[in-house]
Amino acid sequence: MARQARDRFDVESSQINVLQRSCKDRSLPQELRLDFIKKVYGLVFYMLTITFVIASPFIFETYSTMKYIQAHQWIPMFAGIVFLGLYAMNMMVMFAYCCDCRGVQQTYLKMFTTVPINIIFLTVVASAFGIMVGFLSVQYTAVSVCYAFLASAVIVAALTAYAVQMKGDVTGMGMYIMVACVGVMLIMMLQMFGVTGGPDSPMNKLIAGGLAMFFGFLIVYDTQLIFGAEGSSYFSGQDQQRQFEYTLDMYAFAAYQLYLDYINFLIQMIKLMGERRD
Description:
- The protein is mostly helical.
- The protein contains nine helices and two strands, in the order E-H-H-H-H-H-H-H-H-E-H.
- Helix 3 (74-98) crosses helix 5.
């Protein structure tokens, strides 16, 4: 959902080299990249914990939770406002990128390097997604949702290990991914207006499977950007060729992108594997 306006900055076409840098600089100590990786995954797990804690009552105590939500309408309103804000922010940043408006880009990126603003932003996003995942989960049986959670965790772990170990490099495909995201945005808009049929229609199941594969690829892409050449070489035991990697000060931005990969992958898996409640 938030991926509809995913903002991608590729150094091959950007004049502001602030998000990613070439992996050709081998002078930095390997420990710096490892500390960066720890920060990123620490924030990702922090965000996932918030999301799952908020979504759990929707899954296991559906009746009482929905009754509570009906009495506190500010909760879904909060989530709606956050998602509208994210959509507007991403659209503004993308237009600024296309128009080469450097001031907007730098302000946006500065948010992710300023403490505690970056932590507050990630916390609010994780909370809003927790509410959204919760509302999605109440449409399906608790057992099927748990299976989707388990399957997602196993696949994400496998994709992460594959991204670190693989010799191939996908970090230079940023512009292709940006174009693909436009297609994903169009597909989600068609789903929103019911053009592709009902939630359980074969077309929507097919779309959910296709989107899950797309977000799975994004997990590989972002994981390689996070680990870079040094981190991948450390964990794989062999020299890895990577074209680009996130700069060390963009740990919050990297965590934000990887969290979106994980949570959107989970949402599509729930839609694909979920069994509707009677």
